Amino acid sequence: MPSETIELRGHIIDSLILPKVLDEIIARGATFKIGEIRIGEQRTDQSFARIEVTAPDSDKLDELILRLRQHGAEVREKKSVQLAAAPADGVYPQGFYVTTNQQTFVRLEDGEIEVKPALMDSAIVVDPAAKTAQATKFYGIKKGMEVVVGHQGIRVVPLQRSTARTDIFEFMSSNVSIEKPKSAVIREMAREFKRSREEQGKILVVGGAAIVHTGAAGHFEKLIEWGYIQLLFAGNALAAHDIENALFGTSLGVNLEHGALTGQGTQNHMRAINAVRGAGGIKPAVASGLLKSGIMYSCVKNDVDFVLAGSIRDDSPLPDVITDAVEAQKAMRAKLEGVTITMMMGTRLHSIAVANLLPATVKTLCVDINPGVVAKLADRGTFQAVGLVTDIEPFLRELTDFIEADR
Amino acid sequence: MPSETIELRGHIIDSLILPKVLDEIIARGATFKIGEIRIGEQRTDQSFARIEVTAPDSDKLDELILRLRQHGAEVREKKSVQLAAAPADGVYPQGFYVTTNQQTFVRLEDGEIEVKPALMDSAIVVDPAAKTAQATKFYGIKKGMEVVVGHQGIRVVPLQRSTARTDIFEFMSSNVSIEKPKSAVIREMAREFKRSREEQGKILVVGGAAIVHTGAAGHFEKLIEWGYIQLLFAGNALAAHDIENALFGTSLGVNLEHGALTGQGTQNHMRAINAVRGAGGIKPAVASGLLKSGIMYSCVKNDVDFVLAGSIRDDSPLPDVITDAVEAQKAMRAKLEGVTITMMMGTRLHSIAVANLLPATVKTLCVDINPGVVAKLADRGTFQAVGLVTDIEPFLRELTDFIEADR
Amino acid sequence: MPSETIELRGHIIDSLILPKVLDEIIARGATFKIGEIRIGEQRTDQSFARIEVTAPDSDKLDELILRLRQHGAEVREKKSVQLAAAPADGVYPQGFYVTTNQQTFVRLEDGEIEVKPALMDSAIVVDPAAKTAQATKFYGIKKGMEVVVGHQGIRVVPLQRSTARTDIFEFMSSNVSIEKPKSAVIREMAREFKRSREEQGKILVVGGAAIVHTGAAGHFEKLIEWGYIQLLFAGNALAAHDIENALFGTSLGVNLEHGALTGQGTQNHMRAINAVRGAGGIKPAVASGLLKSGIMYSCVKNDVDFVLAGSIRDDSPLPDVITDAVEAQKAMRAKLEGVTITMMMGTRLHSIAVANLLPATVKTLCVDINPGVVAKLADRGTFQAVGLVTDIEPFLRELTDFIEADR
Amino acid sequence: MPSETIELRGHIIDSLILPKVLDEIIARGATFKIGEIRIGEQRTDQSFARIEVTAPDSDKLDELILRLRQHGAEVREKKSVQLAAAPADGVYPQGFYVTTNQQTFVRLEDGEIEVKPALMDSAIVVDPAAKTAQATKFYGIKKGMEVVVGHQGIRVVPLQRSTARTDIFEFMSSNVSIEKPKSAVIREMAREFKRSREEQGKILVVGGAAIVHTGAAGHFEKLIEWGYIQLLFAGNALAAHDIENALFGTSLGVNLEHGALTGQGTQNHMRAINAVRGAGGIKPAVASGLLKSGIMYSCVKNDVDFVLAGSIRDDSPLPDVITDAVEAQKAMRAKLEGVTITMMMGTRLHSIAVANLLPATVKTLCVDINPGVVAKLADRGTFQAVGLVTDIEPFLRELTDFIEADR
Predict the structure, then answer these.
(1) Which of A252, B169, C119, D150 falls 20 to 30 Å from A365 in CA-CA distance?
(2) Where are any strands of DSSP class E within A117-263?
(3) Pairing relation of β-strands D176-177 and D385-389?
(4) What angle do CA C25, C30, C34 make, to 5 degrees?
(5) CB distance from A390 to chain B under 8 Å?
(6) Is the pLDDT of residue C77 over 70?
(7) Residues on chain D touching B67 (C-beta within 8 angstroms)
(8) Which chains touch D (3 or more CB pairs under 8 A)?
(9) Does residue C100 surpass a pLDDT of 90?
(10) Where are the alpha helices (DSSP H) in D58-208?
């Protein structure tokens, strides 16, 4: 029966990597023999294990090794990646390797190179001459590009829990808390925001129209003005409701000051969109003095970059909305460099979309009143996501208060 | 075919009573002829309609008239109620009339008397000599008591929308709002609370342990101290977690200050209950100096009456908990007189239980982060329930802030 | 004070139109005098009311009349619509009238013409020469087109409840039932489906990937084969998971036969998409023999038209997916003619999108295990939506069984 | 700094016990030195680790050791448990040990004895003479009883995953699946039921009124008749609705055959309860011929034992309902001996109550359409709970079909 020797390094015990690996081996009908195991005595020590894995046949062994690599296992004999040419534009070759959002290296003849960006569900295009390895979506593939096939020569470095417990994202892990006191967590978030800004990290907000509906726009605008937001990804709804509110004081016909239905239904909404269409877009509307307040106005005034992505649900998009999903993803991905924190609020659709684009290293905070949305986003198998099931307006109010108190 | 003439009075158009009545008649295969209709010109005017209803047979007519009475229809020929003796303790006679929680009158030989209390799903025990009519649960029935049977001689007066729109409970009706701005509603609630207190109305809180878990106990204690709460109905959980928090600073082992798990699990919880058991109850625990803070402490110190009702889920009740459900209901009902506002927060079980006990005239506010709970409670077919889907801690914080600003 | 006389006709009592109109008048500070009222004695009779409405000023009167029109009120003096030219491509003129999805007529000099299609949140482009009035989205507007402004000369005919109660869509109205017996409703749905097919009505399914995940694809394929589905609107997910299942027997790596995780994660998913990309699309993949089973295969084989609309969430779309939201909506709208029933299953995003496109006359059934989705879709203010909170697989199994038993 | 040596045995790697223990040690500021580690090579092999734990002070060490014991750690030096006398009836002594629902042993001078039953959140009463150790709730405590204090001499044996993967409860673990194919899981459940019956295990159903509302009573009755149910725990609602359905064909006034509202509201419900009250209870009602069908009838006819527990929500209990929560729990616990499978369906309240009473060894299946209920119940930290988010009627239909096919 074929066997191969793998090695595990790092915080393999307390990150549960070792047990997961052993479990995987057994669950797939293979066996293991532990050659050597050194367990770090201190939290800061690295552990090490060398394990010989034996499977019934080489296909099963290959499949198993592929899985173990995703847990961070390295195969001892170093082999180069295998490449095959893309058969047509937009088509991967047979047996292409599917990426995760973890840091990944491919081995060429003369050493390893890192795959960039750390983007999930892509193939890896290698240019051996230029020594680059690029995670590439279908639409980036041109006929003849060299694409990684199989799983030989690939090394994945899963995110490991840091040894210090100072970080709310590690402390909370994917803890979705409904009936928990949230003030302590929000205070920690305020500190994370501050730390991130001191280290020049970019903070991305993925936001839904609920920010406007719940009356939280004013808090959000403060964060923008204070320099805490560098990037906003949203749909047509957030922008259109924000502009409706700026122009008419309503959001889908609800007066945000008095909470009263004005009986205008979607009319103000349509008129707001029409006004911006007449002006030629959001920036021209700010320049011309049509738009004088609100989230989008603050973004323009404070040079916060934004991408508005269209959806099949938007029947009347603003001119700034990128209605093509693939183009909108490209626009988003082009701006992700340098993002260290992503705060997702009140949008299931855009949050999942952006989560698909983020590398595992970006810290993610998801705030929604729907526990299903929070669970779906916070539970993505990394140490870096915190979910809060709560109302957006009081959340942003409290976050803003903590940040203000600490400025 | 048998027919009967009914009359409708009041705001029968804008309370939708007339169309509901006509609809009911047609839907049950009966026909109607409108004898007279006078529609109030002004909002403050009463309307009137006299309608002759004809049904295929007298059984169907009876059943229909029964339904129409529940919409407020009066039958023109006045007949006295029919009574039958209860056949045994705890058993109603055949054909007993089932009450609603609307104001109801029964006609005796010499005039009408009001049924008290306005309690749903009961039978009516009449004492012709004493001229009393009492809504009575099974357990209040003694053999031989005179109980109303059939539906003759009964008049129901459904709650009608007042003509002024100053009242949040009428303005909102059963509007369950997730993505709405809540500040305006909470500000209105603060005004309602103030108004109720000025008019000597009692405010009842039905509360769950989420008040403590979410860190909202401090806000609640302020409301108690300021005299805004006269009555608290809860389960073992609210009291036990509150006392755990007062004694150990945790709620089910979660440190409420730092949001951190102490790793004590249910231990502090059990020790808190044991300590109160040792003291002989909550009041002795306050008297002895064991219990020095928290919601229950504030209740004792400010003479807020409380009923703690047991549940099959509580495996370790405090000594103050009434573990028998029937006894607990009796204790609650005995204290409901004079209650004008009920605020239900964070408990599905106790909120439904109390909703079953309340007359239709009590204004009800239901706050929960679970939209299903709010929908179930806010949508009980009266004009008097407001539901808010939101987090309890920020809700109570904002309510307290509004009340404080206005003191 | 200015006044105007309106008339109401039809089932204005049992459709609650009269009380809504009176309520609206009073709520907006106007007064009314009922000139004449004739209430139909029988369910099949039409009722009639003539009401003089007086408002404080003509602006308020105009706004009120606009609202009353949406309840079906007609203004007695007949005036023609007012038109204004679109100032630029994609921009409506100031004061444009916003459509609903109800049947609407505009009055020209020489009579009324119907607005087509009955599409909400559009403006109305009138061609007086050709005597056409077309509901037109922003992107259909060219500079200079004549667009209806104000609300004069517009008549809306709200959908009225039919007099017979044979129709499940009227019987249920927007009843969202979790804890109700569903077999009776599903049996009625089977009958509606049969009736619709006998009358050559088209049945549209809006479907999410949950149809595949829950193992319901086989039932759905039967409906297609038996000729019960004419149109399928979906996203990339439904098609991609269906094809993954057809090629690999898994859906996102879950073996649908054994319910077991294969540990392949998203790999099979990516390989399925790649295979279809290699083939050049779904139809070529069927033609070439690559795709031999599944929902998409059945659609191709049975000439069921489909539109796959992209979403920002899809990072790897099939070639058949229309990634531009506006183009996808156009493609959908072009196929809606003749649709009498829409069945929405397991997709919030696409269901809301399609609901925005449907005229009020299309009967809509929404099936989802999430009560929030069902409530949002079933409660759209018409008599024609039924919501079922249930699991898709057993729902489709039972629906298919009823239809089969009755074939 | 004080230290102690602990030992871990069993499937400590693949049950994740070792990493949890190491993690706990570090997280609490203690350090460890691994003296010996032997990892089982085969899935069936036991592993072993001896670890020296050092903490800053002996209080911290004690607290840590207490936690480690709950992960199954044994302390090497064997000491006897410490006992203290209960200071009063119903009160534990200071420092009492709080039980889990795992198998637990206490060490006396002359050896270990097992604590019975395995009941969480109790204290342990030891009778050294009789050599018994009993988990005892507050109400079982009499003044002077010897109760375990501290954590010395206590050994907890956590449930370990079996080495075979034939068991659905281990295979699924706490997997709550909404969008998964459920047929495979239900088929496995049918097999588990059969296996349990062959081994004379008792099957307990904890059921809510949704079984009746959703029209699933017929399926449930089949399971009873075929001998698959030995015990039913429910509230007043299940029994009252079942009997309403048996006597009147409705459930809260909804006709279960036609799904139509009969307009009787709660009347039939009240009349059904009154009829049983008149008969003197459920068994007399069956004996007298009043009750001739339904779930409760089948229970009586097939000698299925039942406990109906009251709730503050029940305003009109059947005479069989135990309205006192403590008495109802006693009645339930007295019948749990021999139960191997518990199926919880459609009741949050009673399911949580029963979950509190069950030892960790009982396999639990929780079926509910509300994912929150399923998550709460399935995620209780054992390997033995399976949650299904689905509709009860089709679930029971399919389960019954599988069992029938296999009889």
Answers:
(1) A252
(2) 123-127, 132-136, 146-149, 154-157, 176-177, 202-207, 231-235, 250-251, 254-255
(3) parallel
(4) 65
(5) yes
(6) no
(7) 263
(8) A, B, C
(9) no
(10) 58-70, 168-172, 183-198
Q: What is the pLDDT of residue C314?
A: 87
DSSP secondary structure letter of residue C138: G
For C37, phi then psi, to 5°, come to -140, 125
Q: What is the CB neighbour count within 10 angstroms for residue B355? A: 21
Residue bearing the bigger pLDDT, D396 or A183: D396
- CA distances to B56, B172, C180, C210, D156 from C242, in Å: 56, 45, 31, 10, 48
Other CB atoms closer than 10 Å to residue C181's CB: what's the count? 22
C296-311 pLDDT tens trace: 999 999 999 999 999 9
Give the number of other Cβ atoms within 10 Å of residue C360's Cβ. Answer: 20
Distance CA C315, CA A353 (A): 8
Q: Residue A318: exposed, middle, or buried by beta-carbon count in 10 A (0-12, 13-18, 19+)?
A: buried
- pLDDT, tens digit, 9 for 90 and up, residues D76-100: 766 889 999 999 999 999 999 999 8
Residue whose structure tokens are 């004895």: D113
Residue B95 backbone zone (phi > 0: left; psi -120 to 50: alpha; other: beta): left
Kindly report the average pLDDT of chain D as a whole number: 85
Per DSSP, what are the bridge partners of residue B156? B104
pLDDT digits (tens, 9 = 90+) for C288-342: 999 999 999 999 999 999 999 999 988 789 999 999 999 999 999 999 999 999 9
- C177-190: pLDDT as tens digits: 555 678 878 988 89
How sure is the predictor about C41, in pLDDT bands with cuts at 50, 70 and 90? low
Interchain CB distance below 8 Å, D14 and A33? no
Question: What does the alpha-carbon distance between residue B163 and residue C27 come to, in Å, rounded to a whole number?
Answer: 10
Side chain identity at D180, as an amino acid letter? K
Tokens of B394: 């920020």
Instruction: Inspect the interface and report whether the beta carbons of D13 and A14 lie closer than 8 Å.
Output: no
Quickly tell me which residue has 């370990």 as its tokens: D160
Q: Give residue B264's identity as a one-letter amino acid code.
A: Q
A320 near B CB under 8 A: no
- In whole angstroms, what is the distance from residue A313 CA to residue D374 CA? 31
* pLDDT confidence of residue D65: 86
Which of the pair, B403 or D373, is modelled with greater confidence? Answer: B403
Give A212 to chain B, closest Cα distance, Å: 8
pLDDT band at D261 (very low <50, low <70, confident <90, very high): very low
Burial track B81-102 (b if 16+ CB lie within 10 A, e otherwise): bebbebbeebbbbeebbbbbbb
Round to whole Å and give the CA distance between A348 and D396. Answer: 33
For residues C41 and D403, give the distance between their C-alpha atoms in angstroms, rounded to a whole number.
Answer: 56
The complex scores an ipTM of 0.83
What's the number of CA atoms in the CB half-sphere (13 Å) around residue B18? Answer: 28
Scan for tokens 């690999």, then name that residue: C248
E-strand ranges in C218-279 read 231-235, 250-251, 254-255
Q: Which is more confidently placed, A201 or D5?
A: A201
| Residue ranges of D 154-193 with Cβ closer than 8 A to chain A | 165
Q: Cβ–Cβ of B278/D352 closer than 8 Å?
A: no
Of C31, C37, C371, the CB nearest to B372: C371
Phi–psi pair at A61, nearest 5 degrees: -65, -45
Distance CA(C52)–CA(D194), nearest Å, equals 75
Chain B contact for C326, CB < 8 A? no
What integer pLDDT is reported at residue B174 of this predicted model? 41
Q: What is the spatial distance between Cα D240 and Cα D243, in angstroms, rounded to a whole number?
A: 5
Is B310 a residue whose pLDDT tops 90?
A: yes
